[in-house]
Amino acid sequence: MKLMLSLALVLLSSSAFAQQRAPATPLITHNPYFSIWSTTDNLTDSNTTHWTGAPQPISGLVRIDGKAYRFMGRDPRDLPAMEQVARSITPTHTFYEFKAAGIDLHFTFFTPTILSDLDILSRPVTYLTWTAQSTDGASHDVSVLLDVDPIIAVNDASEQVVYTRNQTATENVLSVGSRDQNVLNRSGDNLRIDWGYFHLAIPKDEQSTTAIASHARHDFVTTGQLPTADDMDMPMRADRNGAHLDAVLAFGKVAGEPVSRHLLVSYTQNYAIQYMQRNLRPYWQRNNEPVSQMLDDAERQYTSLEARGTTLDKELTADLTKAGSEHYAAIAILAYRQAMAAHGLVADVDGSPYLFAKENFSNGDIATVDVLYPSAPFFLFFNPKLLEAQISPVLKYAALPNRWKFPFAPHDLGQYPLANGQEYGGGEKTEENQMPVEESGNLLILVDAVSRAEGNTALAERYWPQLTKWAQYLKANGLDPENQLTTDDFAGHVAHNSNLSIKAIDGLAAYANLAHLLNKESVAREYQATAKTYASKWITMAKEGDHYKLAFNSPNTWSQKYNLVWDDLLGYNLFPKSVRDSEIAYYQTKINQYGLPLDSRADYTKLDWELWTATLADTPAAFNAIVDPIYKWTNETPTRVPLTDWYDTKTGKQVGFQARSVVGGVFIKALADKSLTEKWRAKASSQQ
């Protein structure tokens, strides 16, 4: 497959793609349960893991002229590793290049994360492709082994698993899953799935052999062959003695012409989310499509999807560079697949899409409103329908009179994957540790943003009573918030929070705009006037010399006013430009080696908010002054985990959180470019 080799060479050499070193490298990224990463510079320096860090080893070996080498995973440790000479991450691909014994081996992971096409986006398939070519003028006999540990299908190694061997019209398939298949049996944070099945699918037209055996790697290393018999003693524990899924792809004699082979990996589950006690199917399976058909469709579309992914990679990278800089593009590319993979895309009972975010390594909550808010730029830029799919189930829940009885918006819908009602703080029972101003402002702003993006007020009209109640709450309580939590709840309660006040003011402006769109002009005038009055008061209340305070009653403080970004992006124009300019100028004096602290209380920061704050800058120099240290951090952080959004700006170490959807917030700079936004939204519109 010469196209794949030439593409890899181009992308590996492109400075726009050349992250010096990612904190962790995305390999297979679909949803919170099917998300596999490499956490070392070289793919052979560690075994692959789930985003939580739990072991989910997928190993790769190659035999060149009878001698075996590793190209993925550190096991078997007595086997030499190929020399890794390059690695590159694009929005939909991860490329590696290895050399050994006169062979150049390109290895690619391709996940078609195409947000404009929900059918493809929801399909749980990643393609693995190898391209081998001789580099010394000689001909070499080459074959590769892919080995999958059964722990990929369970929460921990003590669980019992069963195996199957099947075939579809186009593929031979090896599968593994838990014996018990307790569907949607648990919720929480640091968990892996233990229902459904992992599939290793090898196209029938590839020259291959397969096995379900515990000693396949040993046999391949010593003989070049796989065991002739499968392990049939089932069920068995998914530990070191359990059988692995193995496939060998034969390249034959490899000379100067590149030779390519590929296979597919997938994880399927009949039900992915429980919403209000109803079990919902993955979106791709909304019409009861069989797994075999899904895998066949994925294989038949391999070449066309590869072309679409390649085009997306090149086009998006160029656009991100244009919108910000090469460093900005590199950060956004690292965030791209992760932002989507922290969600489960399912179908409601009528087939419409629902998208549920998981609050990874925070508390495992599902559909957390102050997680939907920071990730929103990602979806507003590519496909606003997906943001509507996130806020719709929250709005529907909030409209249940016998469930949500408070005058402010809810925080969450439960713990992933069970979206049966708020569990955070006081839940549905008390106002303790709620986020009333935070979540009410968030939902008002998001509903306004979606309505504008889609040119459709149906959502606002349907939930107007709830939006009105929340606007009234903000009018009464938003200008000078009482002692309460914000989305930055890890920092504790803050009374008179000036940045939270901005959110409330913009929330009132959002409600005024929605009223205008719905021809409720008297309401629109009232709330627009209130928002303007509050903004004017805010300037006086927050002002402290050359900047604005963290809290109205806290002298000698400062904070990132990231919520200001919507005042410009959504055209509320409540705050004079001088507020943004003075804040940006002040921030320049506070930047540390790896970024801008969140506020004056600590050295830590939030990645998403840094980019929102940087987007307030009106010059490339001021924008890059905030972004360049972040780029430096991604290449130097000592914490090797999927992109964290909470880290120390002096040491670069992770403070908490990882693999969260909120990194989608870095796309706010691209969203601020109206022509680019229109261009990418048009791609989604053409698919719907």
From TrEMBL:
The keyword Acyltransferase does not apply. Residues 325-669 form the Glutaminase A central domain. InterPro entries: 6-hairpin_glycosidase_sf, DUF4964, Glutaminase_GtaA, GtaA_central, GtaA_N. Residues 16-78 form the DUF4964 domain. Pfam families: DUF4964, DUF5127, GtaA_6_Hairpin. Keywords: Signal. This is DUF4965 domain-containing protein.
